[in-house]
Inverse folding.
DNA sequence: AGACGAATGTGAGAGGCTCATACATCCAAT
DNA sequence: ATTGGATGTATGAGCCTCTCACATTCGTCT
């Protein structure tokens, strides 16, 4: 944990290769996407032999999954922030959808990773990240869904919200709306609106006195 | 274009290698996912030398994209069928979302392909497939959205519907709800409900300043 | 019919990647 | 100081993508 710079004179050992590899992986994926990523390149950028990464990660997918997990951690922080800026539970739910889309435009590579097929399935922690997302919002959902509909409806709403958010991000990153960076803000607005419509559809006709 | 079977005696030329490769690609992706796919394997299954595919497809991604395009064609047929079985425009919109999710569980490999990052971006026809999907449903959307909200609201609704459908499929295939094959039917129901909520939410008087 | 050019497939190979295995080096606990 | 375990290196097998020169066949033009 000591040397942060790189290759001191006797720096046979790296210090914290695992973390450095994850950082390199995020960089590479940002530049060339998951498909363009290679363990060898990550090793090269970390100034380490091609075999070294395999001391820390079982295989290519394990490194990618670790990087994806890091992304999901950062994303969680973003969600938390988005939640605090909203006032009503109504708005809080909608705002998270919007912030999700905005985050996608900025951290494209990260989402490439989060959505990469097969990674979530193999890595339990990663698969649970969606559930965490839901848990984070559960209190707000309970305030929005009429109590007589029960907890199941609240969870259903949150699943639907995850789905819209994720769906909009997918469409955005696919370029369906145009160059992602250029249209992200507007798409975020539309995603927010969709989320609001969803909340309305699941909840009572009017719960918001103006 | 004549021989369809395989290796007659003098079958130096294949007949329709391009189509056969696309078929093989779909098979392989169904079995081992996009990540496990290799052009070499597709060539092997088509009983052709490893270099042959490159006469028809510029590179690996081009073959994958062609396969994805084939999937999107089949999917379009599924959508059309789902639309005819629904009676009201309301139900029609919701039903397509459900059929999308059900289709995903059956043709997992196909969706792996459709959602593979980078393919859509590179292949124009593929990127337009989402827009086609929207065009397909536009008439129904116009019947559902109050006219005073204009065409933009109708398109917005359809985008939102695409997003939920796609989002639910993504969550399903990630295994968030459990083993995809087992939970698909139930998830389809929930997706349908979300779609209905969305349709209701957009049908309400506009609450958002644009 | 016969010949010729275009299309399509083959064979061999360069270069890169993943991952395994044996070996070198360094840290920490005794 | 020694020694055992963790970490990095060196090497290499096996697979993959994609290229290039060559072989084979098809369609077409005379």
């Amino acid at each position: 944990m000591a040397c942060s710079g790189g290759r001191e004179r006797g720096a046979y050992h790296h210090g914290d290769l695992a973390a450095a590899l994850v950082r390199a992986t995020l960089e590479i994926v940002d530049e060339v996407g998951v498909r363009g990523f290679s363990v060898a390149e990550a090793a090269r950028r970390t100034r380490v032999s091609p075999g070294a990464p395999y001391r820390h990660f079982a295989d290519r997918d394990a490194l990618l999954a670790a990087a994806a997990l890091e992304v999901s951690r950062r994303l969680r922080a973003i969600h938390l922030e988005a939640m605090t800026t909203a006032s009503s539970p109504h708005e809080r739910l909608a705002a998270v959808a919007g912030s999700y889309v905005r985050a996608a435009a900025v951290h494209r590579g990260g989402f490439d990773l989060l959505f990469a097929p097969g990674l979530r399935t193999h890595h339990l922690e990663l698969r649970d990240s969606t559930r965490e997302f839901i848990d984070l919002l559960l209190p707000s959902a309970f305030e929005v869904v009429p109590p007589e509909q029960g907890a199941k409806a609240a969870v259903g709403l949150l699943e639907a919200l995850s789905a819209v958010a994720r769906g909009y991000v997918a469409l955005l990153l696919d370029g369906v709306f145009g160059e992602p960076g250029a249209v992200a803000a507007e798409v975020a607005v539309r995603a927010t609106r969709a989320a609001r419509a969803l909340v309305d559809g699941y909840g009572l006709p009017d719960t918001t006195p103006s």
Q: What stands out?
A: The radius of gyration of chain B is 20 Å. Residues 1-9 of chain B have pLDDT under 50 and may be disordered. Chain B has two domains: 17-55, 68-203. The longest helix of chain B spans residues 60-85.
